[in-house]
């Protein structure tokens, strides 16, 4: 599925795309990823749904200009604006990692309205962040000037670590690619240094206000965000379902794709109008 559309928001260019027919489904990616983590799932759903993909500002094919903010607040505003641009009425939303906090904040603070929300190994409540993520956040000028070959080696190890089973080389390369360009290298470290956990504290304080079907899905072997965090998140959301997936880490999309694909299709079929 190609991101063949562009939407301008607060000076940033958002790459996005849509395909298929039926109820609207929007996928949100996380960090340090892009919509590529959802592309195969989007393709598979186009027989029954109109599927929307987007790269957040500062990620993937979207603009990576240094003066554009990429924090949770900016991304939530961008998401809410993109939903209005697409003229979507109560879409289903499926979010991973950072996309969880973004989609939650858009609903809780930006008046975005969804038919349902599936949260897959999401950054949503404190504490959060892998050990490497926290290291970069604590040392903001340490790594953005390292030679490209070292930067790529660091990225390769970091992203591979998100998978429990290990990523195939072509999948790993696709996730690395946006961050190895001249603009992507500093953008990778910039999005970490702008990370602010106060947004997660704000989200957590209002989770009880959510009044929609929510399904929290978690890789049982997630080494970035423990299973217990997912269980606690589900307990904070009224009526939320919780499913843990065996043999899957943080990148559940690659570790156990059949189970995740079945969970997504079943959830969307149960919650569609």
UniProtKB/TrEMBL annotation:
Protein name, entry field: Alpha/beta hydrolase
Domain AB hydrolase-1: 23-257
Organism expressing this protein natively: Kribbella albertanoniae
Top-level taxon of origin: Bacteria
Coiled coil spans: none
Keywords assigned by UniProt, alphabetized: Hydrolase
N-terminal signal peptide: none
PANTHER family per record: HYDROLASE ALPHA/BETA FOLD FAMILY, PIMELOYL-[ACYL-CARRIER PROTEIN] METHYL ESTER ESTERASE
């Amino acid at each position: 599925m190609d991101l063949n559309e562009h939407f301008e928001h607060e000076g940033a260019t958002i790459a996005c795309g849509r395909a298929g027919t039926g109820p609207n489904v929007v996928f949100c990616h996380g960090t340090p990823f892009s919509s590529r983590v959802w592309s195969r799932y989007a393709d598979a759903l186009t027989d029954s749904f109109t599927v929307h993909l987007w790269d957040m500002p500062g990620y993937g094919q979207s603009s990576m200009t240094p003066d554009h903010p990429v924090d949770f607040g900016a991304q939530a505003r961008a998401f809410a604006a993109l939903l209005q641009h697409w003229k979507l009425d109560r879409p289903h939303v499926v979010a991973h990692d950072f996309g969880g906090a973004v989609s939650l904040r858009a609903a809780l603070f930006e008046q975005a309205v969804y038919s349902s929300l599936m949260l897959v190994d999401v950054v949503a409540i404190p504490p959060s962040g892998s050990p490497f993520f926290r290291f970069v956040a604590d040392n903001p000028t340490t790594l953005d000037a390292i030679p490209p070959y070292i930067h790529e080696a660091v990225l390769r190890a970091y992203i591979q670590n998100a998978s429990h089973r290990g990523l195939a080389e072509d999948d790993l390369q696709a996730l690395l690619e946006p961050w190895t360009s001249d603009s992507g290298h500093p953008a990778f470290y910039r999005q970490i240094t702008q990370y602010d956990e106060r947004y997660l504290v704000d989200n957590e304080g209002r989770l009880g206000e959510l009044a929609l079907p929510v399904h929290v899905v978690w890789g049982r072997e997630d080494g970035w965000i423990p299973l217990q965090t997912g269980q606690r998140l589900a307990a904070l959301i009224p009526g939320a379902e919780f499913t843990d997936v065996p043999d899957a880490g943080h990148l559940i999309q690659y570790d156990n794709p059949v189970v995740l694909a079945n969970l997504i299709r079943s959830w969307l079929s149960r919650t569609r109008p």
